[in-house]
Automatic annotation (TrEMBL), chains A, B:
<dbReference type="Pfam" id="PF00884">
    <property type="entry name" value="Sulfatase"/>
</dbReference>
<protein>
    <submittedName>
        <fullName>Arylsulfatase</fullName>
    </submittedName>
</protein>
<dbReference type="GO" id="GO:0004065">
    <property type="term" value="F:arylsulfatase activity"/>
</dbReference>
<dbReference type="InterPro" id="IPR000917">
    <property type="entry name" value="Sulfatase_N"/>
</dbReference>
<feature type="domain" description="Sulfatase N-terminal">
    <location>
        <begin position="42"/>
        <end position="391"/>
    </location>
</feature>
<comment type="similarity">
    <text>Belongs to the sulfatase family.</text>
</comment>
<feature type="signal peptide">
    <location>
        <begin position="1"/>
        <end position="35"/>
    </location>
</feature>
<feature type="region of interest" description="Disordered">
    <location>
        <begin position="441"/>
        <end position="473"/>
    </location>
</feature>
<feature type="compositionally biased region" description="Basic and acidic residues">
    <location>
        <begin position="461"/>
        <end position="473"/>
    </location>
</feature>
<dbReference type="InterPro" id="IPR050738">
    <property type="entry name" value="Sulfatase"/>
</dbReference>
<keyword id="KW-0732">Signal</keyword>
<dbReference type="InterPro" id="IPR017850">
    <property type="entry name" value="Alkaline_phosphatase_core_sf"/>
</dbReference>
């Protein structure tokens, strides 16, 4: 066993102060719970949010709160250095699904092929094979949706309720609204430019599309609870992927806006404006209300997390359900998200693009109320879930089984090195050091940090200083690691 | 035709001042010579020296002179920005031989496979196929000599006189001396550590090894003249690859040392010292005489160049022979070489490791007495020779046909970008800018320049300043070019 990495883990609240680093494995009744877990394999609930910024939660969220996310964190481990494998949704979700750097599947940026090959085993395939009832609820957004295997029912999910694309209208989910918008749009721009204004298609429910009424965050939460309620003989694996807090955050229940006196934005009307003009504002609301919209979405997201936790508590499932919360990438600066104290945001390889809210909880099994700074990544979830289900992870897997860290038997578990590459940007982190490169300036509201940057994240978490000239040895070491990793992908 | 790049080319001496940039194509009798060339294809003499430093010639060579190399330059074009594709002998020679970045053949550093594959066509194969009599005289040093195709007679040479390895004793070329040394060495170090002290094997003459008497520089010059003298019906292609001025420069004719009062170093004697101690001194003569030894080798090299030029003049072959002079890489700082005003030396990707003395001459056809700063490289020689021979270069070729530049019909010919990669170091040059990276500090006497460096070579030819932080756009642009090139190698 490796040396315990005690400096990186601390109790979250004073109430847990008794649990010093040396006695993590003596949590009350944890051994009982583990015995139960051996008898009945734990359920797994993976909650994935969309573009939830590192700073838009907890102490950093100064203009609002997410009490239910706090409640989840207090019941488990809050990872302060939890990463995803990409700063954009589609690539990140593919890494999460396969436990592999998605570049191994040829995926770097939007439009790459997704699960085009059978070579890689998916998280739900492993869990279904292990006897789990599996459900995908919400946003899929695998790259290259044209490949049949990218459809959730084709990569291991028994049940699918949600949408395949990048975004979903929060309020409209019916064919009539969708057709009406597309019709207007075609008239305006026959070449379909501006298409992504509104994704108000009906929900995909398994093989068919169904008109639905309601707010997407609530609909997804409800569906997850329904599925979990029905599962009885088998343990369940539910991936609950909210579209909150992705673009179009202005799409909030009218009564919410009214109550708070927040100015609404009407959906696009061709009589009023060019679709691209609207698009710019709706997707990237550079307006006084931008932050208010985002806080609205966070509010509903938190409420839904609360309902899920209440459900698990009420059903007595909490201690036998491993609950994970992770965002698919960093907050988008364009929609008012904060990644404080990190630099940059979605689309970039600054910490703000790739370090995300990351919580793992299972009272009685996983350490409770802990804050842990070990380097972990969404790629670790597949092997950790496999371990939870008592089966082997696939041979081709870049993640670590976090179980020994979660249960306190080996606090040193974590990555020494992590890598990112979206084609036009790459980064490597080794220990506290990070080398970052971008060949583009990035989008105007998310500058990618052109050129090379070497940072010591311990000294400079906001990536303000570039030490590439000052520390050539470190730069060389990191570049060597990156090149080795890059060469080994193929 | 591209715009003439007049600023990059200037007459070498006042005598050529009449030849302004605008009238390069009106050199006396050049059109006659070109007509002759069409009737009878020019011979090609490629002189390759070993580790000849950029600063160890011409005005920069303050402590000696190479009048015959000056004479060659005055009769042709002196390229001030002529490069090789590697800062070490073996890889550089493979690039020269194939006209391809040797990385395409999997060759980055010592020990890679050389011409292991038949996929790449060699320079002598093209010329032999075009009807040339071909000879390889001197040092081969292709990587991975174990592959049959690395032997000169197996890649297009009709005749071979020289040696296959990295180095040759300048004075001893006989089996008895070689065996005696190996015997002593085996006694001292059964594991053969220290083996490369002395390569005093006999000369390889086609299929057999023959004991020879004489100084290697003179022997190689003599053999080249002999071959050229015999060639009559066919045009000839001779690659004359001197081992001067590689390591062990102390191995000079005793009378030369005596005349100048330079202290000799005796070859290794096991009774006197550990072979590695000797090795350090003999290969890397960190002693007061180091520069004197090197100047001695340069002196003999220059004399031999003079004999070759005299031979061509006397036989009336000069106007019908394309003569090229190039070093295989930059000067080795370890043996007293200078690369002034460039930084670094052999083994490194500083300019001193890869920018070399580079001359092309054919009076009456090639511009005379010109100094040209266009970016050219040893990879250009294969397509230029193919053009000279009136045949097509292979499809897979990274070089440019320099003929239009040489004859003054298009002075813009030259590379916009050049790339280097030896595994642990890479570099890219685009226009005046260069991005360089090394993951090693390099050998103690040839520091490789750890980490990243961005330089504007126009402003800073000695690579003193690192502008990587100041010019992130330029760094990104160059890194992008490098990554694209690197990805395209396979």
């Amino acid at each position: 066993m490796k040396k315990m990495n005690t400096k990186r883990i601390r109790p979250l609240t004073a109430g847990y102060a008794l649990l010093s680093a040396g006695c993590f494995s003596f949590i009350t009744s944890s051994s009982d719970a583990q015995a139960d877990a051996r008898q009945q394999r734990p359920n797994i609930l993976l909650i994935v949010s969309d573009d939830h910024g590192y700073g838009d939660w907890g102490d950093a969220l100064k203009d609002a709160s997410m009490p239910n996310l706090d409640r989840l964190a207090a019941s488990g481990i809050h990872f302060t250095q939890g990463y995803v494998s990409a700063p954009i949704c589609s690539a990140s979700r593919l890494g999460l699904l396969t436990g592999c750097y998605q570049q191994r599947l040829g995926n770097f940026w939007y439009g790459d092929g997704g699960m085009a090959t059978d070579e890689f085993v998916s998280m739900p395939e492993i869990l279904r094979e292990a006897g789990y009832a599996t459900a995908m609820i919400g946003k899929v957004h695998l790259p290259g949706v044209q490949h049949a295997r990218n459809f959730p029912l084709h990569h291991g999910f028994d049940y699918f309720y949600g949408f395949e694309g990048a975004a979903k209208h929060y309020l409209q989910h019916n064919a009539a609204a969708h057709e009406s918008f597309q019709e207007k749009l075609l008239k305006y721009h026959p070449e379909k430019k501006g298409y992504p204004i509104v994704f108000n298609q009906p929900m995909q429910v398994n093989d068919s599309r169904k008109d639905q009424e309601g707010f997407s965050t609530e609909l997804f939460g409800e569906q997850a609870r329904k599925f979990m309620a029905q599962a009885d003989e088998k343990p369940f694996f539910v991936q609950l992927s909210f579209n909150a807090v992705h673009d179009q955050t202005y799409q909030l229940p009218p009564e919410y806006l009214k109550e708070r006196g927040i100015k609404p934005i009407a959906d696009w009307d061709p009589a009023m404006q060019d679709p691209n003009t609207f698009n710019d504002k709706a997707l990237l609301p550079d307006c006084a209300e931008a932050r208010d919209y985002l806080l609205g979405q966070l509010n509903f997201l938190d409420i839904e997390i609360g309902r899920i936790l209440d459900f698990l508590d009420e059903r007595g499932l909490r201690r036998n359900t491993l609950v994970v919360y992770v965002s698919d990438n960093g907050g988008s600066l364009a929609n008012g998200s904060f990644n404080t104290p990190l630099a940059g945001g979605k689309f970039t390889l600054f910490e703000g693009g790739i370090r995300v809210p990351f919580i793992i909880s299972q009272p009685g099994t996983v350490q409770q109320g802990m804050v842990c700074s070990n380097l972990v990544t969404s790629l670790d979830l597949l092997p950790t879930f496999a371990s939870t289900a008592g089966v082997a992870a696939p041979e081709l897997c870049d993640g670590l089984d976090l179980t020994p860290l979660l249960t306190g038997t080996d606090l040193s578990v974590g990555h020494q090195t992590l890598f990112w590459d979206v084609g036009q940007q790459f980064a490597v982190r080794a220990g506290d050091w990070k080398l970052r490169f971008s060949e583009t300036t990035g989008r105007s509201r998310s500058p990618a940090g052109l050129g090379f940057q070497l940072t010591n994240l311990q000294d400079d978490p906001g990536e303000k200083q570039n030490r590439i000239e000052e520390e050539p040895e470190k730069a060389a070491e990191l570049m060597k690691l990156y090149r080795h990793w890059r060469a080994g992908l193929e």
